[in-house]
Amino acid sequence: MPPTFPPAMFRRFLLSSLLSLAGLSQAANQPNILFIFCDDLTTQAISAYGDKRKLLQTPGMDRLAKEGIRFDRCLVTNSICGPMRAVIQTGKYSHLNGFFNNSNSTFDSNQQTFPKLLQKGGYTNAVIGKWHLMTDPVGYDYWHVLPGQGAYYNPPMIDNGKPVKHSGYTTDIITDLSLEWLKNRDKTKPFMLMMQHKAPHREWEPPIRHLGHDNDRVYEEPETLFDAFEGRTKAVSDHDMGIERTMTDGDLKLKPPGGLTEDQLKYWNEYYEPRNAKYHAANLTGKELVKWRYQRYMHDYTACVKAVDDSVQRTLDYLDKEGLAENTIVILSSDQGFYLGEHGWFDKRWIFEESLRTPFLVRWPGVSKSGTSNGKIVSLLDLAQTFLDIGGQPQPADMQGRSLVPLFKGEEPADWRKSFYYHYYEYPVPHRVRPHYGVITDRYKLVHYYKPDVDDWDLLDREKDPLETKNFYNDPAYAETVKELKVELARLQTEVKETLPPPRKAHGNKAFDGEPEASAPTKKGKGKARAQAN
Ligand code: CA
Questions:
Q1: Residues contacting residue 325 through CB under 8 Å, at least 6 positions apart
Q2: CA of residue 313 relative to chain centroid, distance
Q3: What is the CA(335)–ligand 1 centre distance, in A?
Q4: From the CB of residue 227, how many other CB atoms can be counted at a distance below 10 Å?
Q5: Measuring CA to CA, how many Å separate 126 from each of 10, 187, 189, 268, 411?
Q6: How far is the CA of 143 from the centre of ligand 1 (A)?
Q7: What's residue 503's pLDDT?
Q8: Which of 226, 401, 493, 524 has a beta carbon 3.0–4.6 Å from 381's, enabling a disulfide?
Q9: Which pTM was predicted?
Q10: pLDDT of residue 514
Q11: Residue 4: its pLDDT value, please?
């Protein structure tokens, strides 16, 4: 005879049985996903990646590498903030998801995205921090985002559609809000949390606690700080993103940022004012000026990264404390890499390695092998399908990446990609980087700068020229290589459904700004999360 319960007790018994079954099935099939995403964080600033300059120690991120997998060649499809976020949401290239650039694209949130599919598959989703897609997030049970680029200090934010104002340092606030959401989330479901930092985006404003973190050390300079672009095309040499020609007083902290409280400004000035006075007295010019700027840039950038690393440590500790670590996949990445003085640059955009490659660390307890690395070409394009695969959901056929789950498990699929397609659009503002597309392999990159006043080809050979300071395109010794790469480029363009020449319209957006075909009034995003440019 089955036990008899009063109806209310029976309902409770049934409910708790179902919940525990759900818990079991979650443990087996639907692990939690914590995606820690940074803005303009680059591998050179993460100690686990072993940059020879040793710019900074990052014990939090290094812990992820030590307990998981370090991917050494995670590439972006279009090295700039908003567009890569759209690629992650959709698993599609810019020309199909319609978000081409930061200056005039608006994300069409009616299209298929991975969070919508995960939500249907039983997950509770949240996005907290930088969003930058100009329309409100869809597919999330909770969202609390910065408008546009957001501020480093005392940021206004949007809490599920409602404007709110916070006090303090944004990296810390995003961490607090994320841990708070984890604490209060619907615990009957697996979660997918996108914890998205603004840092270390320009203008690299450090937290007060890390001002002077480097004790005024002298940072080693990159070998190409004074790259003169000899023998290079106009497309490469005629940029506006140089430490020498482009950095502003705000970038260099020769004036304080707006929006600080009286107290914050006091500590800020205590650090910068005496150093700025010395700088002014020295009256530097030419190379000496560039060298000084590089040092200031490294202090500020690494201080911002240090705060992100604090956040990673706090978050991993929280997972440990709450017993969540075992059943949560943690992925740390960034929307692209960044130049820390290489070629004399800051910023991103180019197909060159520093901004093409982005950090990618994965810890999946019981699945990923600790302390390993993987050099295969993977991409943020793969994330949508990866997240769906992790959550046991089908991967739509029109997504253009490939699930990374087999690589997380240590498998080596024989048919893994050997080449990758890239396309950058934003021109001329803010940094005068000509639109370009290209094919990337382990060794080579063949690039076409096609617009508006250039028609330049570049062939990079990372084996012969790891710093990417030479163009082998017209070298007769490479004629066969160029021919083969052009065939591969055409094959990839067909595969990704590229149509040339651009521009074309997708999801209401034009690929190019400031041209006759894009001269219609810029569409205003109806969402409150609209971004400003850059
Ligand atoms: Ca970015």
A1: 316, 319, 365
A2: 19
A3: 5
A4: 20
A5: 34, 13, 13, 33, 30
A6: 20
A7: 65
A8: 401
A9: 0.92
A10: 57
A11: 46
Output the CA 408–ligand 1 centroid distance in Å: 25
> pLDDT tens digit string along 72-100?
999 999 999 999 999 999 999 999 999 99
- Identity of the amino acid at 312: V
- For residues 171 and 175, what is the distance between their CA atoms, to the nearest angstrom? 6
Task: Quickly tell me which residue has 């700068």 as its tokens.
Answer: 449
Burial 357-395 (b: 16+ CB within 10 A, else e): bbbbbbbbbebbeeeeebebbbbbbbbbbbbbbbbebeb
Read out DSSP for 390-403?
HTT-PPPTT--S--
Predicted local confidence at residue 475, as pLDDT: 98
Q: What is the pLDDT of residue 504?
A: 77
- How many C-beta atoms surround the C-beta of residue 449 within 10 A? 22
Q: What are phi and psi of 457, to 5 degrees?
A: -115, 145
Average pLDDT of 444-471? 97
Ligand 1 centroid distance, CA of 201 (Å): 7
Measured in angstroms, how far is the CA atom of residue 41 from the centroid of ligand 1? 8
- Structural domains in the chain plus CATH codes: 27-82+113-414 (3.40.720.10)
Between the CA of 259 and the centroid of ligand 1 the distance, in Å, is 22
Mark the residues whose beta carbon lies below 5 A from ion ligand 1.
39-40, 81, 335
Query: Can you tell me the mean pLDDT for 172-194?
Result: 98
The Å distance, Cα 534 to ligand 1 centre, comes to 9
Whole-number Å distance, alpha carbon 38 to ligand 1 midpoint, is: 8
Helix axis angle, 170-184 to 286-321, nearest 10°: 20
Task: Identify the weakest region by mean pLDDT among 170-179, 182-191, 248-257, 493-502.
Answer: 493-502
For residue 27, CA distances in Å to 168, 381, 431 come to 37, 27, 47
Kindly give the distance from the C-alpha atom of residue 84 to the centroid of ligand 1, in angstroms, as a whole number. Answer: 8
Mean of per-residue pLDDT scores for the chain: 92
pLDDT interval class at 525 (50, 70, 90): very low
Mean pLDDT of 509-533: 51
CA of 116 to the centre of ligand 1 (A): 24
Cβ distance 119 to 387 under 8 Å? no
Strands 69-71 vs 360-363: parallel, antiparallel or unpaired? antiparallel
| Residue 143: both structure tokens together | 């969202």
- Confidence at residue 521, expressed as pLDDT on a 0 to 100 scale: 37
User: How far does the centroid of ligand 1 lie from the alpha carbon of residue 359, in Å?
Assistant: 12
Q: Which pLDDT value is given to residue 502? A: 73
The pLDDT score that the predictor gives to residue 220 is 98
Q: Give distance in angstroms: CA of 370 to centre of ligand 1.
A: 28
Residue % of the chain over a pLDDT of 90: 89
Q: Output the CA–CA distances (angstroms, integers) from residue 472 to 293, 436, 447, 456, 463, in the order listed.
A: 32, 17, 11, 12, 12
The answer to whether 458 and 471 have CB atoms below 8 angstroms apart is: yes
Q: Measure 199 CA to ligand 1 centroid, in angstroms.
A: 9
> In 3-state terms, what secondary structure has residue 88?
helix
Q: Which residues contact 474 (CB under 8 A, 6 or more apart)?
A: none
Q: How far is the CA of 40 from the centre of ligand 1 (A)?
A: 4
Q: In the predicted model, is pLDDT for residue 534 greater than 60? A: no
